[in-house]
Amino acid sequence: MTQETSGPPGKGPGGGAHNDPVDQLDRKIIAALRVNGRATYADLGRSVGLSASSVHERVGKLEAAGVITGYHATVDPNAVGLGVTALVGIHPTDTATEDDVAAALGELPEVESCYAVAGDEAFVVKVRVATVDDLELSLGRLRRIPGVGRTNTTVVLSTRFESRPNNAGLHEDLTGGA
Amino acid sequence: MTQETSGPPGKGPGGGAHNDPVDQLDRKIIAALRVNGRATYADLGRSVGLSASSVHERVGKLEAAGVITGYHATVDPNAVGLGVTALVGIHPTDTATEDDVAAALGELPEVESCYAVAGDEAFVVKVRVATVDDLELSLGRLRRIPGVGRTNTTVVLSTRFESRPNNAGLHEDLTGGA
DNA sequence: AATGAAAACGCTTGCCG
DNA sequence: CGGCAAGCGTTTTCATT
């Protein structure tokens, strides 16, 4: 898992500030790239008050460190014929490990997200398909995965917003850093 | 809603082009941009077998038509101090409209996604914060929204994958789009 | 009307102060 | 971290189909 990226939860109060590879300027660059992933380095430099070369160096380090994991275009699902979204809770059986189930879920292209969760269910996945018929087909595929027991499907009626840039880590609104 | 995206009219080349504003070549470009949102037009042209100018024109139309809605950098949440994710089901009361509730949810920066759903709950939202203390604070804020009744919180133990490019609309695996 | 080619412009990117 | 310079991609324009 991606836990070792920036070190354990220890906030390291006092002492070496070098431990945090992501400083405040990096956070501003990250926030700008989350809003516009195609912003040029010159643009970013103007936004944060740095030269393009400096921004380039910082972004390269952020990418190498695994902080920035990629850049992706977002698409209107309806426009590409994916009009049905559902959240599916997956109850486990004891016939397979969670890792194997997760790997099998990853093989299904219609499963966009997969979370291992606490509670009665082992996973919650987000599925996006074209029609309710396809949803039925997909649920059948899910249930054929070894280790998958009962499924609990919640149909999404409308997506109000999704994968929004979360700047809670940029300010100290709610993070309560201390 | 966004079904009739008055896009480019009938296309000649590429084979059987119907009235669909998004033809097969567009889908390949979209798929490439979902994988790498910073791909240059020259790169895209090489990928799909088109010139850079043609790709540029097509992408511009896709953006104008609202098919491509944006480009965003993806960040490792742990690296920016957001180590706690939760899925929160929101039960409604009858004191407010769903639109007002959704708007209020949109004011909270830690709420990354918001889905109106069928079933007992009115919404399911994804919340991302730094600590479980912050999660408690956030749930308090959620419950103070008029129209929000009981909440049902599922803590995410690990994110196996998230917001993956869904190419179910690109192939005919499961869409049966016809 | 869409495509491909060419040209001017602007950005990227390595290197040094 | 900033500035410079070389190389490359972008973006407009134009001719072609």
UniProtKB/TrEMBL annotation, chains A, B:
InterPro entries: ArsR-like_HTH, AsnC-type_HTH_dom, Dimeric_a/b-barrel, Tscrpt_reg_AsnC-like, Tscrpt_reg_AsnC/Lrp_C, Tscrpt_reg_HTH_AsnC-type_CS, WH-like_DNA-bd_sf, WH_DNA-bd_sf
Biological processes, Gene Ontology terms: response to amino acid
Gene Ontology annotations for the cellular component aspect, listed alphabetically: cytosol
SUPFAM superfamilies, alphabetized: Dimeric alpha+beta barrel (SSF54909), Winged helix' DNA-binding domain (SSF46785)
Region (Disordered): 1-22
The HTH asnC-type domain, residue ranges: 22-83
Transmembrane stretches, start-end: none
GO molecular function: sequence-specific DNA binding
Name of the protein this chain belongs to: AsnC family transcriptional regulator
Native organism: Amycolatopsis sulphurea
